[in-house]
Design goal:
Elements: E1 18-21, E2 25-26, H1 41-50, E3 57-60, E4 70-74, H2 76-84, E5 89-94, H3 101-112, H4 120-133, H5 136-143, H6 153-164, H7 168-176, H8 181-187, H9 192-204, H10 209-225, H11 230-233, H12 237-243, H13 250-265, H14 267-281, E6 289-293, E7 302-306
Parallel strand pairs: 2-4, 3-5
Antiparallel strand pairs: 1-5, 3-4, 6-7
C-alpha cells in the first residue's frame, strides 16, 4: 500500500483558482509532466464548447510579484490546448511554495490515473520521475502495479530507458503502439544512429510485432557478420527499393524485407528449404497427404501426415 503521509493535508479544494497569464506558464515537459503523444482535438473541442471545467494546478517558479513564472503540476494538456485556442488567461490553482516536489508529482499522478490510460512512454515518464524522488524498491513495489506492470526492477529499467534514452521518433512509435516493447528493448541495445535508421523503416512500413523483432535481429546480425554499420546496410539499394516501391502495400513490403534479410542472413538454410519444397513437389503425394519438416529443418526427421478420412465399414 502507498503511504498516506505522501499526500496528507494537501487539500486542493481549499485553494481558490486565480486568473494567471498563460505566457507566464512554462508548458514544456517539466518535472511533473507525464503526457506524451496525445491528440489535443477532443479536449480543444470540449473547451471551445463549454469552457474550462477543471482548473490546472501550478507551482510558482519565480520570486514573487507580477512577473512570477509557473510550472505545470497538473493540467499540462489543458494549458497547451488553451494556448492553441489563443486564451490569454485561465483560472488556475497555485500550490503553496512549501509544497514538496514529491507531493506535486503524486498529485498529478493520482489526478490522471482514474481518467485516462497511460501509453508506454508516459509510464516511463512517470516512473522515471518517481525514481528520482523515491527509492527504486518503493517504486517497484508500490507504483508499478498502478500501471498494471509487473513489480520487477528489470521492467522498471526498461520503461525508464524508454523515457531517457530513446529518440523522439522512436518514442512517437512507442506512444502510438507502432513499436512493440520487445522491439524497443532490442533498439535500446543499439547506438542512436542505428535506432533512428531502423525507426525510419518502422515509421513508413507496418511490421507486426514478430516482424519487428526479426527485422532488428537480422539487421543487427548482418551488421556484425559483414562488418557494415546498420545505417549503411539499410541504405543499400535492395532494401531501399522495397521500402519505396509504390506497387507494394505496407504488409507486402514488410514480408519482402524480412524474406530478403533472412535469405542474406541464413543462405544455406534458405537453399535447403527450397530444395526440400522442390523434392516434395516431385513426390506426387496422394490428395490429403503432406510432408512437414521439423522447425527450420534442424533435425533430419520428417513427418508424413494423412488427412484422408476412413470410410465406414
Amino acid at each position: 500500500m502507498i503511504k498516506v503521509s505522501y499526500m496528507d493535508r494537501l487539500k486542493i479544494a481549499d485553494i481558490l483558482p486565480q486568473q494567471i497569464n498563460l505566457n507566464q506558464i512554462d508548458d514544456s515537459s517539466g518535472p511533473y509532466s507525464m503526457s506524451y503523444g496525445f491528440n489535443p482535438g477532443p479536449l480543444a473541442a470540449s473547451i471551445s464548447r463549454i469552457g474550462l471545467i477543471n482548473s490546472p494546478i501550478l507551482a510558482r517558479e519565480g520570486k514573487g510579484g507580477a512577473e512570477d513564472e509557473f510550472v505545470v503540476v497538473s493540467g499540462f494538456r489543458r494549458i497547451r490546448v488553451l494556448k492553441k485556442l489563443n486564451w490569454t488567461k485561465a483560472p488556475c490553482r497555485v500550490l503553496p511554495e512549501a509544497t514538496s516536489s514529491l507531493k506535486c508529482l503524486l498529485l498529478n499522478l493520482y489526478e490522471n490515473l482514474p481518467v485516462r490510460n497511460f501509453n508506454a512512454v508516459e509510464m516511463g515518464m512517470a516512473l522515471t520521475r518517481l525514481a528520482e524522488l523515491l527509492p527504486k524498491e518503493e517504486v517497484v513495489k508500490d507504483f508499478m502495479p498502478l500501471f498494471d506492470l509487473p513489480s520487477h526492477e528489470e521492467t522498471l529499467h526498461l520503461f525508464m530507458r524508454i523515457e531517457t534514452a530513446l529518440e523522439t521518433q522512436a518514442k512517437d512509435l512507442v506512444a502510438r503502439g507502432s513499436l512493440s516493447l520487445q522491439a524497443a528493448k532490442l533498439l535500446l541495445e543499439m547506438d542512436s544512429a542505428a535506432r533512428q535508421k531502423i525507426c525510419r523503416y518502422f515509421s513508413t512500413i507496418k511490421f507486426n510485432k514478430n516482424q519487428q523483432a526479426q527485422f532488428i535481429d537480422f539487421v543487427n546480425d548482418l551488421s556484425h557478420i559483414e562488418d557494415n554499420p546498420i545505417s549503411g546496410l539499410l541504405d543499400e539499394p535492395d532494401l531501399t527499393e522495397i521500402r519505396h516501391n509504390e506497387r507494394m502495400n505496407s504488409p507486402q513490403k514488410a514480408r519482402a524485407l524480412i524474406k530478403l534479410l533472412r535469405a542474406r542472413r541464413l543462405p544455406h538454410l534458405v537453399k535447403t528449404e527450397k530444395r526440400f519444397r522442390h523434392m516434395v513437389e516431385n513426390l506426387a503425394l496422394p490428395a490429403g497427404c503432406q510432408i512437414t519438416p521439423l522447425p527450420i529443418l534442424k533435425a533430419p526427421i520428417i513427418s508424413l501426415k494423412s488427412f484422408l478420412k476412413r470410410e465406414k465399414t
